[in-house]
Design a protein that fits this description.
InterPro entries: EME1/EME2_C, Mms4/EME1/EME2. It is found in: Nucleus. GO terms for molecular function: crossover junction DNA endonuclease activity; metal ion binding. Its cofactor is Mg(2+). By secondary structure, this protein is an alpha/beta fold. It folds into 2 domains: 199 residues, Rossmann fold; 86 residues, Crossover junction endonuclease EME1, DNA-binding domain (DNA polymerase, domain 1, Orthogonal Bundle). It is built from 12 helices and 8 strands. Strand 1, helix 2 and strand 2 form a beta-alpha-beta unit. Helix 2 packs parallel to helix 7 and helix 4 runs parallel beside helix 6. The termini are far apart.
């Protein structure tokens, strides 16, 4: 008998020790999960911060093709712009000469057992091509010849050139920039041919306009004609700011309505709160009125099902009319009904098939 008691006590002690260890493991698991949640939140805050207006430019790099250096003064002007914006700049060979592109440094999170953050460089889908004037003139002249029916290779036309750029930078928005076009027109205003050996590539203002219109219609590509290095630097500044702020503006457009930003949990009280908020979008629907309606119909589905059980539309319109709305409590308590107008508007909200119907 004494042996059985000892054995029972031993088993009980082992069971208690086992339960204690289990509780310790649960506490440790909760502690680790809490730490992990804090790390995830911190990493997400760091990632979001990189897209804020005051921070996004610091995470941008302007990539200049090595051929840009050959354009007198352009490299210096763009470098000054980058320094003023707080952005980085790199000079490296691009897929096509005279291309300017952008690269963003983003923070990525590895949501494994241990939350790890790493910085990654992503190329943006926007490029500028600073096309030399003589090359642009040749391409426009090639397009002019092809329009006349002459045999011209595709790569010798402006449209063909843009097609080749699009193949190399698939999925990117392309903008051509040409410096000195007005100076070209002034230089050859009174001459129909060049004085040098290139007597076959003179183009008119009309030729340029036709080529650019065709380019926009067929290639969905924009071309800007500017006159100075300073103008080019201004374009780089504008594009750098626009590319840097693009993700933030995109998120802003996707969250057009204020209640899109509210996080709603999966439990019943959260869903009822959202249902009440939806009802309170109407004018003169107070928290007391919405609470009274939700107490009878805790979800939109329950209200729609109640409408379906009504025998006619008149009964549907009056369904919520006589629900009592109580205000305050005790001796100060007052009561009223939802009312005809509120009942009618909520009925229209839940049942109308007219997308253009205005509910106030």
């Amino acid at each position: 008998m004494g042996l059985e008691k000892k054995l029972h006590a031993k088993l009980k002690a082992e069971e208690k020790a086992k339960q204690k260890q289990e509780r310790q493991r649960e506490r440790e698991a909760k502690r680790l999960e809490k730490e992990r949640a804090i790390q995830i939140k911190k990493a997400q805050q760091m990632s979001r911060k990189a897209f804020q207006p005051k921070e996004c430019l610091k995470h941008m790099s302007v990539i200049l093709d090595s051929a840009i250096v050959s354009i007198t003064g352009l490299e210096t002007a763009i470098v000054n712009i980058c320094e003023n914006l707080g952005s980085n700049y790199l000079i490296q060979s691009q897929k096509i000469p005279f291309v300017i592109s952008w690269r963003r440094s983003v923070i990525e999170c590895d949501m494994g057992a241990q939350v790890l953050t790493a910085q990654k460089d992503l190329d943006e889908d926007e490029i500028l091509v600073c096309l030399p004037l003589d090359h642009f003139v040749e391409l426009v002249y090639g397009a002019k010849q092809k329009q006349r029916g002459e045999m011209v290779a595709d790569f010798q036309t402006l449209q063909g050139y843009v097609d080749s750029v699009r193949q190399m930078y698939f999925g990117c928005s392309i903008t051509l920039v040409v410096i000195g076009m007005e100076n070209y027109f002034r230089k050859y205003k009174r001459s129909k041919t060049h004085k040098g050996n290139r007597t076959d590539t003179i183009i008119s203002r009309l030729d340029v306009e036709e080529a650019l219109v065709n380019l926009q219609l067929r290639n969905l590509c924009n071309c800007q004609l500017i006159e100075s290095i300073e103008d080019m630097a201004d374009i780089v500044r504008t594009f750098t700011k626009a590319v840097a702020e693009k993700p933030m503006k995109k998120d802003r457009l996707q969250s057009e309505f204020t209640f899109h930003n509210e996080k709603v949990g999966g439990n019943a009280s959260d869903n009822q709160s959202l249902w009440k908020t939806q009802l309170e979008q109407f004018k003169n629907i107070s928290n007391d009125i919405s609470s009274a309606i939700v107490s009878h119909y805790p979800s939109p589905k329950s209200l729609v099902e109640a409408y379906k059980k009504c025998s006619n539309e008149k009964e549907c319109i009056k369904l919520l009319e006589n629900i009592m709305v109580r205000r305050k409590a005790g001796i100060l308590e007052t009561s009223r009904r939802v009312g005809k107008e509120a009942s009618r508007r909520i009925y229209l909200l839940m049942t109308t098939t007219n997308a253009d119907l205005v509910l106030k």
